[in-house]
Structure formats: C-alpha cells, structure tokens
C-alpha cells in the first residue's frame, strides 16, 4: 500500500479526474467508504455529530452524514463555517444533503459547540484534511478543543483536523482521534512519532481511483502478506552453502551477548553457516548460546569468504573498534551490514561507503542516525522520510531507520515502512536480534530491499505474536523474539514446515 504526501494525493485526484471520475463522484465514493468504515465503531443507539469544514474534507462530511441517516443512525450535520465558504464539490453534496430532506445545522458560537457535544456520544471530524496549512484558525481551534475535552468517541475522516499530512511540522493543534478512516492512502504523518498518536487506530478506505492511472509513488508499507509473497523458499536439494555463509563481527569481553543474539537470530532465520569474529576472551561466554556457530580470529578473518557480513554490535566505541570497522569497510567485498557501535565509529569515514560496489546496509535507531547526520534527534524524528532518502542516496546505502515505524530506504530512494512490533522491543538486545535476521535475509533474497523489509517485519511480527501468546510488552526479551521465530515461520509458509 502506497504512502503519500498531500501533493501526491492531489496528483491522484487529478489523475482520476483526467480518467473521467468527476470530483463529486470521488467525494461520494470517499464519503460512503468512510461512513461504512466508521459505523464499525458506532452503535445504532449512539447520537452522532458530524463536524463539517470548508474544504473537500467537509464535502466528505455531507456524504457521511447522509449515508448514516440513510442507514438509520441518529446524526446531526454541523457546518462550522459560513455558507459562502462551502464551494465546488462540497456545495454540490450539501445541496444533495438538503434535497434529501435533511437540515444542515450551523455552528455560530462556542455555546453551540458545548450544546452539540452534550447531546452526542460520537463525534465525527470532517472539518479539515490534507489541505490544512499552519496552526488552526477559529472556529476550528475552539471546536477541536471542546471535542478533545468531551467524553465521547472521537472519529476522524482522512486526517484528524489540524494534523499536517506531511513531515517537518512541529507545532500544531489537533483533534485527538480515537480512530481515523484514512481516504485512499496513508499520509506521511500516520507514521511519525509526533503526529501518529493523533490518529488513534486507523485504516484505509478505497475510493475508486483506478490504480493504473495513479502516478507512481516510491514509498509503501511492507506487511506480513508481502513477506509471505517474497520469502525465499528452501529447496529440498539444498545444502548449508545454499542458505548463506555469514560472518558476525561483534561482541567483546563486556558485551558478549550482542554477538550471541545476532548469530542465533541469523541461524534461527535460516542462515546456512555463521562464523563469529569476537574478542578471544568473549568466546566462552558466547559459544554456549550458539553451539552451531564457529569462531574466527579478528586478526586473520577472511572477509571475502562470506556471503554477508554483519559488524558492529557490542564492539565498543574506542580506537580499536574504529580501526576494526575501518578495516571491515575497506576489505569486505560482499554485502555488509553495520549496526550499533559500528555506526558510531563509522561517522569519521562515511565517505568510504560511496566507493563500495556491493550493498552496504546501515541500521541506526534515531539517536545513531542523528549522530551519523550531525542533526538533532528531534530533527530526525520530525523528518525521517526525507532525511533517510537524502542519506541513502548520498552514500549509496540501504538505510534501515528503526523505530515504532521502521523506514527502509534503498540507495535509489525507494522506501518501505514496517509498522509491526510493539513497545516490548524498546529494550536492549532488540537491535542485535534484528541485525541477525537481516544478515540472513540479505544473503538469501533476490531483491535486497524486499529482503530487508521482510526482515524488519519478521522481527516486529514475531514480537507481536510472542506478546499475544504469553509474554507481555513489559517482560519481552530479545531472546524471546529469537526463539519466537520458529512459530512465525510456521505460520508464514507451509512449504517450510
Ligand atoms: N483524492 C483526493 O484528494 C480526495 C480528497 N478528498 C477529501 O478532501 C480533502 C482535501 O480537501 P481540501 O484540499 O479542500 O482540503 P481541506 O478539506 O483540508 O480544507 C482546506 C480548507 O481549509 C482551510 N484551511 C487550511 N488551513 C487552515 C487552518 N490552519 N485553519 C483554518 N482553516 C484552514 C483552507 O482555507 C481551505 O478552505 C481530503 O483530506 C479528503 O478528505 C475526498 O473528498 C475525495 C478525494
Ligand atoms: N515502541 C516500539 N514499537 C515497535 N518497535 C520498536 C519499538 N521500540 C523499538 N522497536 C524496535 O526494536 C528494535 C530496537 O533496536 P535498537 O534501538 O538498535 O535496540 P538495541 O539497543 O537493543 O540494539 C528496532 O527494530 C525497533 O524498530
Ligand atoms: K478530518
């Protein structure tokens, strides 16, 4: 499913119009689709108020109110702006609403809002959508404030009023939705840490824009269904060499667990062979947890003997670590993933990545990405899509920017978003497990972007499954996720069980 900016959404609208789908038709589709989606959250006995704003989001509101009334719900349509502001397609739908025998109520002052809210169980926000610019003006601001304070169910259409569609906007006032029925495609703000909570839960309704005429967007969600579709199959005649021979360069005397978890996660994800290059003194602490792995000495490791290398977890941030990562970046000829401490020390010679001919994969969380880019974490969280794209293009790398919504960017700028996972993963070790899964995926997948995207979903989806099946978000450990992988593989593909 594509993820769009406001501009890209307007371009779709335009393409649909050129294909003959008039704006009024699209608005009818949008309103009806949203109404049928929203009623899943409404009881027949609920009293509903539909707030209608000045633009096309308000137009959707007239269609929604008419559909709800037709279905036998008790709904009031409240236009929050003067009549002259209702124009174009929205005016057509207002006309149809009235011609259907319904009355348009008006919001005139703040007491009105309180009165309406006192009588309602459910509020549907069809005030503003992707057209919002800057902070809310009156009367929207007051109405939003009253709605947010009232004890009722808050639903929204397309976007909660006031939430910007795009990234980069820090300050805004917005309607706090419990659920949002998103029109046609999710907007960037549905995935950002500071805007996503305003949506509540959300899902997307299809409104009839022919996908063949929609301008291509190189940004989409990657889901469990996509993993099922693209997961590498395990050939009956395969041998261990067929599934990838990987090297994990990680761990140290004080941080042995990281290398153990990355290696174990790689093996649990199907890697054929895993070798570990760690500090000699750490070997006895690591080997009991991954009996299947072999060990190689860091001084003599043969970097070109592997189908994939993952480096950096638990190596520390001192001069030795820096020299190690420098050596690895210079001499590894195959695909190379760098994580954790490796990213920290990489900063001084990032330029070297541009010269690599085989894929480089960097897997920072926002703090590590801020360090790599010299930006603040706040900036990273405000504009992760554009910063990730610029960085991936500049250094020619695959960038996995981790978080509740993980953004995977290819060197050509194509982006995927993984929304699986839960706050149980916000715990040391989760990133190490992910690095191991990704190491296997990068060795086995025909498409690097598909493989990395699937690796992120395998990780998050497994955490979700394990939490549903006995663990909680409080006690979940990275090792639980690793040991949950077999269950995930069993549910994903009958050909591998
Ligand atoms: N493909 C599409 O683009 C479709 C869009 N539809 C709906 O149309 C919406 C977009 O319509 P519009 O472009 O009219 O945008 P909006 O419905 O968001 O409204 C824009 C209006 O709000 C006013 N406004 C902007 N910022 C404001 C602020 N800070 N305070 C107060 N008023 C402000 C503007 O002056 C303008 O009148 C979508 O969100 C969706 O709900 C659907 O009807 C059908 C298809
Ligand atoms: N609240 C959350 N919801 C979903 N996934 C999360 C959440 N917090 C963290 N994660 C995931 O957990 C992993 C954490 O990685 P990282 O920050 O590198 O952890 P570590 O410090 O353990 O290496 C990432 O895959 C990230 O997407
Ligand atoms: K809205």
TrEMBL record:
Domain YjeF C-terminal as annotated: residue spans: 223-492
Record-listed (6S)-NADPHX binding positions: 56-60, 129-135, 140, 158, 314, 365, 432
Domain (YjeF N-terminal): residue spans on this chain: 9-215
EC number: 4.2.1.136, 5.1.99.6
Residues that, per the record, bind K(+): 57, 125, 161
Cofactor(s) required, per the database record: K(+); Mg(2+)
UniProt remark on cofactor binding: Binds 1 potassium ion per subunit.
Keywords annotated in UniProt: ATP-binding, Isomerase, Lyase, Metal-binding, Multifunctional enzyme, NAD, NADP, Nucleotide-binding, Potassium
Catalytic activity: (6R)-NADHX = (6S)-NADHX; (6S)-NADHX + ADP = AMP + phosphate + NADH + H(+); (6S)-NADPHX + ADP = AMP + phosphate + NADPH + H(+); (6R)-NADPHX = (6S)-NADPHX
PROSITE patterns: YJEF_C_3 (PS51383), YJEF_N (PS51385)
Binding site for AMP: 402-406, 431
Subunit structure: Homotetramer.
Role noted for this protein: Bifunctional enzyme that catalyzes the epimerization of the S- and R-forms of NAD(P)HX and the dehydration of the S-form of NAD(P)HX at the expense of ADP, which is converted to AMP. This allows the repair of both epimers of NAD(P)HX, a damaged form of NAD(P)H that is a result of enzymatic or heat-dependent hydration.
HAMAP family: NADHX_dehydratase, NADHX_epimerase
PANTHER family: ATP-DEPENDENT (S)-NAD(P)H-HYDRATE DEHYDRATASE (PTHR12592:SF0), ATP-DEPENDENT (S)-NAD(P)H-HYDRATE DEHYDRATASE FAMILY MEMBER (PTHR12592)
Family in the record: Belongs to the NnrD/CARKD family.
UniProt protein name: Bifunctional NAD(P)H-hydrate repair enzyme
Origin species: Halobacillus kuroshimensis
Gene: nnrD
């Amino acid at each position: 499913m594509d993820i769009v900016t406001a501009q890209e959404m307007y371009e779709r609208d335009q393409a649909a119009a050129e294909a003959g789908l008039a704006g009024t038709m699209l608005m009818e589709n949008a309103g009806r689709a949203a109404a049928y989606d929203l009623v899943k959250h409404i009881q027949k006995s609920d009293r509903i108020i539909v707030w209608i704003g000045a633009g096309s989001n308000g137009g959707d509101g007239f269609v929604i109110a008419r559909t709800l009334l037709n279905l036998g719900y008790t709904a009031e349509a409240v236009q929050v702006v003067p009549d002259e502001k209702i124009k174009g397609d929205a005016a057509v739908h207002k006309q149809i609403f009235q011609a259907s025998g319904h009355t348009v109520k008006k919001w005139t002052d703040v007491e009105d809002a309180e009165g309406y809210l006192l009588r309602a169980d459910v509020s549907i926000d069809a005030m503003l959508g992707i057209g919002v610019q800057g902070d809310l003006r009156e009367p929207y601001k007051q109405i939003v404030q009253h709605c947010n304070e009232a004890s009722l169910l808050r639903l929204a259409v397309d976007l909660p009023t006031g939430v910007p569609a795009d990234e980069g906007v820090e300050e805004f006032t917005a309607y706090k939705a419990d659920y949002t029925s998103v029109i046609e495609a999710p907007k960037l703000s549905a995935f950002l840490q500071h805007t996503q909570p305003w949506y509540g839960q959300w899902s997307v309704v299809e409104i009839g824009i022919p996908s063949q005429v929609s301008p291509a967007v190189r940004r989409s969600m990657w889901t469990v269904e996509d993993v099922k579709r693209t997961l590498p199959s395990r050939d009956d005649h395969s041998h261990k060499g067929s599934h990838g021979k990987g090297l994990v360069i990680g761990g140290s005397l004080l941080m042995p667990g990281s290398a153990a978890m990355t290696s174990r996660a790689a093996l649990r994800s199907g890697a054929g062979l895993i070798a570990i290059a760690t500090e000699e003194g750490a070997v006895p602490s690591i080997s009991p947890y991954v009996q299947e792995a072999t060990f190689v000495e860091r001084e003599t490791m043969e970097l070109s003997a592997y189908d994939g290398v993952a480096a950096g977890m638990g190596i520390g941030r001192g001069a030795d670590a820096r020299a190690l990562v420098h050596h690895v970046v210079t001499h590894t000829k195959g695909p190379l993933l760098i994580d954790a401490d490796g990213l920290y020390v990489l900063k001084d010679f990032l330029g070297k990545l541009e010269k690599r001919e085989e894929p480089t994969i960097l897997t920072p969380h926002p703090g590590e990405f801020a360090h790599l880019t010299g930006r603040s974490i706040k900036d990273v969280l405000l504009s992760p899509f554009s910063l990730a794209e610029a960085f991936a293009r500049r250094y020619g790398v695959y960038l996995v920017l981790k978080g509740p919504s993980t953004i995977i960017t290819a060197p050509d700028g194509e982006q995927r978003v993984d929304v699986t996972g839960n706050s149980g993963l916000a715990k040391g070790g989760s990133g190490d497990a992910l690095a191991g899964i990704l190491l296997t995926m990068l060795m086995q997948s025909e498409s690097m972007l598909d493989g990395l995207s699937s690796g992120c979903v395998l990780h998050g989806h497994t955490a979700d499954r394990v939490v549903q099946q006995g663990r909680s978000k409080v006690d979940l450990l990275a090792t639980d996720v690793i040991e949950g992988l077999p269950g995930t593989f069993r549910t994903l593909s009958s050909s591998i069980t």
